[in-house]
Amino acid sequence: MKALSVLLFFLIFNQSFTQEIPEKEVKSKVVEATVFLKGAQVLRKETVVLPKGESIVKFTNLSPFIAAKSIQLKAGGELTVLGINHQQNFLDKSVKSEELLKLDKDLEQVNEKIELENAYLSIAQEEITFLQTNRLIGGKNETLNVATLKQAAEYYGDQLTALKLQTIERNNTIKKLLEQKNNLQNQINSLAGEKEFSTGEVLVRVDAKVPGSYSFELSYLVDNAGWFPSYDIRAKDINSPVSLHYKANVRQDTKVDWDNIKLSFLQLSQVSLVLLRN
């Protein structure tokens, strides 16, 4: 693979990015991160299908804490990289508001269902009370034959059984709805309490000699990450040799998931890395 390394530069390309050029939005994943004592270098890989000629490849949903001047790009194939631009997307913050609105609507629907179930439960309980109050047919002084008593007992038993089962079913439904309500309320509280951040974007203007699939590797430095060492000393007993285990404790709050990625660690800071490169 022929690789092109390109450092970020801004001045002469800002106006050219606004021209009518096909734009390809790319939602890449973090595949590797080198974590420093303070900060990290993140690597993303993605294959993009491009037409012949100029295009803008737009990497979206990136961390808001990218060090813009650290951005590097490698592109494979018969492709010329014309420029790179970094920007913040403040419009994506509306996604959180939309999610809150949806959760509020779901909560309202659950509350309506709870209210309806409570109404049905109240009706069933009133019917049970009515049956229990009026279970005797006729007056106290009226003599009832065996057939009438048997018929009344069967009717009373059937109705009361059905109503009792109905109240159990309604109570179980209300219990489940209350659990849903609690979960929704917790989600709303969690989302409402989070600080809103913009998302980072990297726009790469390229010129493809032929249409096809092109591989991209995007790397950059990012804040809100780091690691610190710790040591675990163990021995089976006082006569056994001591084993020393070295552990790396990682912290990262870059607003981007690092699930199932390759991690490596350096006992350097971002500043030290930049100085070494220079």
From TrEMBL:
Classification via InterPro entries: CHP02231, DUF4139, DUF4140
Domain DUF4139 intervals: 217-264
TM ranges: none
Signal peptide: 1-18
Short name of one Pfam family: DUF4140
Domain DUF4140: residue ranges: 33-131
Protein name per Swiss-Prot or TrEMBL: TonB-dependent receptor
Species name: Cyclobacterium qasimii M12-11B
